[in-house]
Specification:
heterodimer, A: mainly alpha, Formate dehydrogenase/DMSO reductase fold, B: alpha+beta, Alpha-Beta Plaits, 2 domains, 4-stranded antiparallel beta sheet
């Protein structure tokens, strides 16, 4: 590989021969200024207002859809018997999955010392939180009476009833609420030093006060930094098993049921891999426009996009293995005629088209990413990220809906057709996600300045080799 | 916060590079200063080592939190399922511990994560919106951006303004300023 690289590549470090993560020529000051200016400028780009307005319109649509839902009940959706889990659960699983890449980037890549992640981890974590917000909405509104959703939690009440802890649906409550809490904590912790930077650089009184409060008085003491590093590592170490458990627990919602197409032990790993796959696609969807509009090409470099493409190839491969294993188990291994029929129905039944959409989007087209040229082309990767997320949405659709339409008894077969309220709610959460993201990039540091400083060559200490001066007593 | 204090908080030396800071900090520690701190725009582990700060208790707090979390949830599940509200679910035993593992596992992570987070800030004494160092003219522009500081605090028994200033200046810092309370 190394021989083929052109020697005059500016991204190649002349001393170590390694690929630089961020473009050369940056100093502590230039990195700080570049990132903090985006937040502290008094000039808000017109494009930002436009984007916020469009997303805000979508949020209003979500409000309308939810209001009508609360007035009329879940009957306005396409769900019926036997397909009692429709778009709401498809969207829930899809959104949670998207969140997972943020945790993966911030936690697992931190543990593996993959320093290239430093430029993208902050907004990947933000993506996690906003995706969990969208995801968490669905089970809540799917309960039918969302104002009683607190019944899910164990609390002493006058009815003297308690939750039933043998159900994966209750495990979900704890998995998702823990995931949301820990993601917020990790995100905020990572942001505190940068908020200190913003406090110190802010010109307006209000900004100084605002960032002063939320930076908690951070002053960069190395004692604090040492504890901060420990806490970050611990949270990374805790988030890693957490993120694996969250999608595993969600897959239990399906796997513990007896329905053909759901009742399979491969679900936990296959759900987690699919989650990371779609999440990385979403990071690319967000990173490419952000680096372009905010001129961050030298902080979020082609190498980041290239690396994310590689991660998608790997996780996409695991997902493909999962699909293949489902077919293998259904046709050859299980010797169960219901499993056999389920698989046949998925591929060639009335909703068979959705299976082929998912195979095309998740397996066939992403193979283009084997080409280095493709991975290093932001436009093509941007399109690919949409393709993969479409495919992942259809994967959840196939699992949830196609399986439910055909269970054991032909007399209880049914069909499913989403209504306009289903589509409005789904599109509304996409808008909510975008809306929150627009607020985030305007008011919070979207690239971790303190972690970028570590990546600079100036941050390397050469003190050990140099003798101490005599004057040091 | 204690009552308003007056006088000198300490001497603040500014450096341009982390290497200079670590060298000065190491020398200060070696010559007997103990009450001092370094301020850097990103974690400089060598500086913490140099001023003799080797261990922190965040891990311990986190461990205790996690153990409390697992005990709390497993206990709650057992109490609810066995005593408070026993339900026969498909003939499974009331004490179906394998099913209880999942929420207990989640609460282990929840409590240890929150303990690490709040423990970190408690140990650091944050939030602390006011600190004497913020009075130094060059501190806020640098410590969270691109400069490296060593502060010898006046409470150190070895501290003496003129002598400590001379000591700091021997490392060719950008500046040495006296910080008031």
């Amino acid at each position: 590989m190394a021989i083929k690289e052109p020697l005059n590549d500016p991204m190649l470090d002349p001393v170590t021969g390694e690929y630089r993560v961020i473009a050369p020529g940056h100093t502590f000051k230039s990195v700080t200024e570049k990132v903090s200016r985006i937040v502290l400028t008094s000039h808000t780009p017109v494009g930002w207002w436009g984007g916020l307005a469009i997303a805000g319109g979508g949020v209003l649509m979500l409000m309308v859809a939810l209001t009508w839902l609360f007035l009329k009940g879940v009957g306005i959706w396409g769900i019926t018997i036997p397909v009692a889990w429709g778009f709401a659960i498809v969207n829930f699983v899809w959104w949670i999955g998207i969140g997972h890449a943020g945790t993966l980037i911030s936690a697992i890549l931190l543990l593996f010392k993959q320093s290239w992640r430093n430029s993208i981890n902050r907004f990947a974590e933000a993506m996690t939180i906003f995706a969990v917000v969208c995801a968490g909405l669905f089970p809540l509104i799917h309960t039918g009476r969302p104002w009683l959703a607190y019944w899910l939690f164990p609390y002493p009440n006058t009815m003297n009833v308690w939750p039933q802890f043998r159900s994966p649906l209750l495990w979900d409550v704890f998995a998702v609420s823990t995931y949301a809490t820990i993601s917020v904590v990790f995100w905020y912790l990572g942001m505190v030093p940068d908020l200190g930077t913003l406090r110190d650089r802010a010109q307006s009184k209000f900004a100084q006060f605002f960032y002063g409060i939320i930076s908690l008085g951070w002053r960069g003491s190395v004692r604090h930094w040492t504890r901060y590093e420990t806490a970050s590592l611990l949270l990374a170490g805790l988030s890693t098993p957490l993120v694996l458990s969250v999608h595993s627990v969600i897959s239990f919602d399906f796997a513990v049921a007896l329905l053909p197409g759901w009742h399979t032990t491969i679900f936990p790993p296959y759900f987690v891999a699919g989650a990371v796959y779609s999440g990385f696609a979403m990071v690319i969807t967000l990173a490419i426009p952000i680096r372009k509009f905010y001129h961050l090409e030298d902080l979020i470099t082609i190498r980041h996009i290239d690396n994310m493409g590689k991660v998608m190839l790997v996780t996409g491969g695991i997902v493909a293995y999962g699909y293949w294993m489902e077919v293998f188990m259904a046709y050859w291994y299980s010797a169960s005629r219901w499993e056999y029929f389920m698989m046949w129905n998925r591929m060639f039944g009335p909703m068979g088209w959705s299976y082929w959409v998912l195979i095309t989007c998740n397996i066939a087209l992403p193979q283009l990413m084997w080409a280095r040229k493709f991975r290093r082309n932001p436009t093509l990767m941007f399109i690919m990220s949409f393709i993969v997320n479409t495919g992942m949405w259809f994967e959840r659709f196939v699992i949830v809906v196609t399986s439910l339409t055909r269970d054991y008894l032909p007399s209880s077969w049914g069909t499913y057709k989403a209504t306009r309220w289903d589509y409005m709610t789904f599109a509304g959460t996409l808008a909510l996600f975008t809306f929150l993201f627009f607020l985030f990039i305007r008011f919070l540091p979207m690239i971790p300045m303190s972690e970028l400083r570590i990546l600079l060559p100036q941050a390397k200490i050469k003190a050990k080799q140099e003798p101490l001066p005599e004057a040091g007593d | 916060m204690s009552a308003i204090r007056e006088g000198t908080y300490g001497l603040l030396a500014e450096f341009d590079s982390p290497g200079d800071l670590v060298r000065a900090a190491q020398a200060a520690y070696d010559s007997g200063y103990r009450r001092m701190d370094c301020y850097t725009p990103y974690p400089v582990e060598e500086a913490a080592e140099a001023i003799g700060f080797h261990r922190d208790e965040v891990s311990l707090v986190c461990l205790i939190g996690g153990l409390l979390g697992v005990a709390a949830m497993f206990g709650l599940e057992t109490w609810i399922s066995v005593w408070a509200y026993p339900l026969n679910i498909a003939g499974r035993p009331y004490y179906s511990w394998p099913a209880f593992i999942v929420p207990a596992y989640e609460w282990t992570i929840l409590w240890s994560g929150l303990s690490a987070f709040f423990g970190l800030f408690a140990l650091c004494g944050l939030p602390e919106p006011y600190h004497p160092l913020f009075n130094a003219p060059n501190f806020r522009g640098g410590a969270t951006s691109d400069k490296f500081f060593l502060c010898l605090e006046a409470t150190d028994p070895k501290f003496e303004v003129a002598q400590s200033r001379a000591f700091l200046e021997s490392f060719q810092p950008v500046s040495v300023v006296e910080v008031e309370y």
